[in-house]
Amino acid sequence: MKLNNSTNNKKNIFTYWIIILFIIIFLIFPFVINAYWVDVFFFFGIYALLGLSLNVVLGEVGLFDLGHMGFMAIGAYTTAILNVNFGIPIIILIPISAIAAGAFAYLVCSPIIHLRGDYLCIVTIGMGEIIRLTLNNNPFGVTGGPNGVFGIDFPSLGNFFVIDNSAKFYYYIWIIVGLTIIGLVNLQHSRIGRAWNCIREDEVAAESTGIDVRFYKLLAFVLGAALAGVAGNVYATKLMMVSPESFNFMESCMLFCIVLIGGMGSIPGVLIGAAAISLFPEFFRTFAQYRMLIFGVAMVVMMVFRPGGIWPRKRGALQLKSILTKAGTENG
Amino acid sequence: MAKDKNIDVKSNKKDKVVLETIKLTKIFGGLTAVNKIDLKVNKGQISSLIGPNGAGKTTVFNVVTGIYKADGGKVLFNGEDLAGKKPHQIIKKGIARTFQNIRLFSNMTCLENVMAGQHCRTNKGTWSAVLQTSGQKREELEIRKHAENRLKQVGLWKFRDELSKNIAYGNQRMLEIGRALASNPDLLILDEPSSGLNDKESEDLIVFLKSLLKEDLTILLIEHDMNVVMGISHWVTVMDEGKKIAEGLPEDVYSNPQVIEAYLGKEDEEEEY
Description:
The complex is a heterodimer. Chain A is an all-alpha fold.
């Protein structure tokens, strides 16, 4: 905030109030609405987290990743297997799931990271499907085949605080989403975020400007996968079981839609996209068989009229003032 | 006054070679794009590489900056062999470049473009960015200050919040130079900086490039515009069909029959038509 403290204070304060208002609404939300909708909003949170994780890869760096659910599956199964077989507490498994998914992304993506656009897209589809099929085939008898793994514990801090109902899960996921947003916004305004965007804009120029393109692409994949791993952890503990068909190709496509609908590289956009994907089908449940049709039409209309997404990232709206206070330097 | 200073700089550091290529060769399939080129760039001077279209000038630049791998010969920068170095490592050594067809980060603001130019001079990592450590904040502030200086230097501070794709062509060129300068290079390589500029802009560019020499900077440029070349170069190398055909002071090169032949064609050839 030091960078633009003297500018647009009014607008900043307004934005803060909007954010505070949203937080208050989110805090009182479970008390005014029934458990079903609390659950819907829990899944909204899961999709938001997944959307944010894919946004790092797809939105910030422009790498087409259509196998993102595979990373979530790694996180979810890591949690499930280690918890059910070894009784390791969920809270410890959050970082472990993230590291497992990140390490997997590093291993798998290292050889394919130089691929461009659609080629990378095809390979990641393959990767996601291979993960799902492997889980389905029950290697070494640990993944339970198509039935998956059952009996995962609730997340808890010892015995005195157990997250065991919808409302608690609702707060749990949104706290994680909130922390993630803070971290990602910080990243966006650092040299890392700039390097990512440079790669998206022009790879050759980025490399010539001193950005290690390969390293930053891999970093985006690892970070995105780690966040997806965390989402997998929460998902597994909420459902208390994991099974391969939760992580199919359609889900990866949905994540892709979240980022495209919201606006590539835009964090508020991703939240809107996640809301569209997770809440829209609920509102239109009365139309039952037509809702996918409506959804499709809405997508087409949106792509025609707002190709950049509903809330694209605005750049340069800060009206940055000079931070060099020396007199005589204002020649621009 | 500026002229005097230039001459000073020239005479002081005349001997020191910043960049040297020895028998540099690059082959594309059956075509030898660059054929055993020996190039020397002296410190504190503006050297030019000229030649007709397709002579392989840009290829030389691309090999020097690591975008292509040399098929033979060496590139020495301050005496160090650059073989096998990637572009992002080469800019860290101190060679920054611009492109013939401007390659800016078009959907980022001008200020962000210049800030990105400092990437190789800064080192804070992911965790300090996520957690916003005090070191990270300090570094970010330094980046901002430096970018502001460079943006003012190229005269684009008023466009700081514009997306770089929205500013005029001449300004985009200057912005690209600003981005290259942001990495505090020792050697600045410019690929046809005056192409697409009008006469006024070209003149401004010449003045600007001369002013850069005061910063202890060495410049190597590819140029088509003879006025620009003759106006500012201390040393000119001429290429044709991948080979070096002449080098020397601008006046000497200008009257060299081989150079004229390369640009205009042989006299007897013209008679045939």
